[in-house]
């Protein structure tokens, strides 16, 4: 059995769940393919995918054993350009957190490139694959409309206090809470361009659900120092890396 | 809670209580909430009108001030300033700190004296040394001593250029004109003075300051050349030499190569900088340039003054501008010397060490201590961000937090063991703990050096390991990473602060900067930065005497 993450806490279990491709992510909301395209802002709904090369089966590529071994993802087969979706995850119990995203992405998705900072986490792939992945990321427990932000640029908010509606700060105010419906709406695409019609992202997860699903250790949730198994493994990694400087045989 | 050193700053920065978890946004008035931004707008308008080219306009691009544009308290002071005031362009004290380092080179007189005495049979006495120093203090700022039809520099522009000497020989020091002597006995506590004098012995060294303007117009590489040229001419004049005789070549060789200590080493050509530039200043040198250790016996203060100096110079000026360009590094670097955050974390670590091990430098210098102190301080620090949302909002970038948490863990562990390597090991441990606790760290750079650095802490191999005091911004893997180098300098200082050592790495550098004639006071770095922010710092090397009066 793959050992995705150490620890006996619920946070550790959640990290294992996200990383385990056999674990079926809970679907929490429905977002249409068209709405995913709008949120991403890379093409208009219905618009053809832009190509950067002909479909692979039309290209006269040299024989190569790697090409035989590795099945191309759909977007690569079609010649799509590379596009992205980027998230900002609040430290106030957002379900997915940056390194958890990175680690789980590489377990779950092929043909991707992912990068991690404290305030934003990007996944890049061929455009139609990004759309497929984005739909899963937005519909499932990876995402909470209030504490997860879809932000291409001007990302900051992950460490700021939430507002009175539990929404994470966003200087471009892309995701807004509709007090009448109780749902969060995306009024701009991820880069900040206004949408003709808002995309409804659903109700914010309640605090109990967030705390049950979150992947961040916090003293007012589950403290990392109390997850002795996880800390022990980490300290072992530190000792092992330190010893490796002597190139042990 | 009452003991948290950062709370006063938090209460001033935000209208909400530090523990409050919610706030309001988008109603702050944008940039108008800031006195400094408002000043910038007005200046920008005036300039645009005058020059006919649009300039500063904060309504372009990202909407500034959608949340509170907070103030910053210089740690260890009562001074609150705006963030803009700590950008090195806006802060003459930060500029002066770098000017004072770059203009310095330490040059021995010992080879020259040997040549005079043993080769030429001349006498060298305290009187001849004093005479030479009078000559070189005329020449070093840019005046002529050997030729009669020479252009010279205006003294009002180069009044920060001079030469002083120091020696471990008290008798000799007493006999040289005191105007030219860095008096070790006067500047250092007795024990430190004795240790320093023992290191220097009977040798005589010059602390040479060339004019700051020269460094600004040329570069740090010019410092030793300018110095050597003026020293050579002064030797010829003071000792009545023939300008062409062979011995003058020896003077030149001594003052250009044999007995020269630059503040920074030469950098690889890809970084395109000469010696005496910030990228070549080892962490141990930075620790010794800082002078807090001779005016306080508090190891935390002594250490964090080094961090502040390093953060401003390595992060804001070196990486932020020389290497990267742009303006963003100030926000990042100032986290280490504002709002008493690192102070709180480090005092916690010091107290923990004293309680657990019965004092500083008492813990075993091994991995168990690293795991114990490093983990405890990292956990404490991380949890403060969780307990006080205002603190998390203050250090709103993960890189800021990563730097401060690991610095606290590293310095505290070095306090415990009295050894910088175990301190450095705790730095790396804290990076991992941070990464796993919050599932985030800093920018991409933290995925490089902070993940592989542990392997080169204890094993010393060519290019892959060095005592921390000898590492610097130019060390492999450290060359490109903001938010680390000032903190590393602090960890290099920490064990020596805990041991009350007279110096961290180079006694000559420690002595050379114990100098009241320097414009920047290196014994109180953060207070000087505060003066700069308040526009109360009086810099040197201003050009007002050669430009139209305003």
Q: How would you portray this structure in words?
A:
The complex is a heterodimer of chains A (249) and B (550). The longest helix of chain A has 17 residues, at 228-244. The two termini of chain A are 27 Å apart. Chain A has a four-stranded antiparallel sheet. A three-stranded antiparallel sheet of chain A has the order 6-7-8, covered by helices on one side. Chain A contains eight helices and eight strands, in the order ααααβαββαβββββαα. Chain A is an alpha+beta fold and 249 residues long. Chain B is mainly α and 550 residues long. Chain B has 23 helices and seven strands. In chain B, β2 and β3 form a beta hairpin. Chain B is globular. The interface between A and B is large, with 47 and 59 residues. β5 (162-163) of chain A pairs parallel with β1 (22-23) of chain B.
Helix and strand arrangement:
The complex is a heterodimer of chains A (249) and B (550).
Chain A (H helix, E strand, L loop, with lengths): L9 H10 L13 H8 L24 H5 L4 H5 L3 E8 L8 H11 L4 E4 L4 E6 H13 L8 E3 L11 E2 L11 E4 L4 E6 L5 E9 L4 H7 L14 H17 L5
Antiparallel strand pairs in A: 1-3, 1-4, 2-3, 6-7, 7-8
Helix pairs in contact in A: 2-6
Chain B lengths: L6 H7 L8 E2 L11 H17 L19 E3 L6 E3 L9 H11 L1 E5 L1 H10 L6 H14 L22 E6 L2 H6 L8 H4 L2 H11 L3 E6 L2 H6 L3 H18 L7 H13 L1 E3 L20 H7 L9 H25 L5 H5 L7 H17 L9 H21 L1 H6 L3 H20 L2 H19 L10 H4 L32 H14 L8 H6 L12 H9 L17
Antiparallel strand pairs in B: 2-3, 4-6, 4-7, 5-6
Helix pairs in contact in B: 4-11, 5-10, 10-11, 12-13, 12-21, 13-21, 15-16, 15-18, 16-18, 16-19, 18-19, 18-21, 19-21
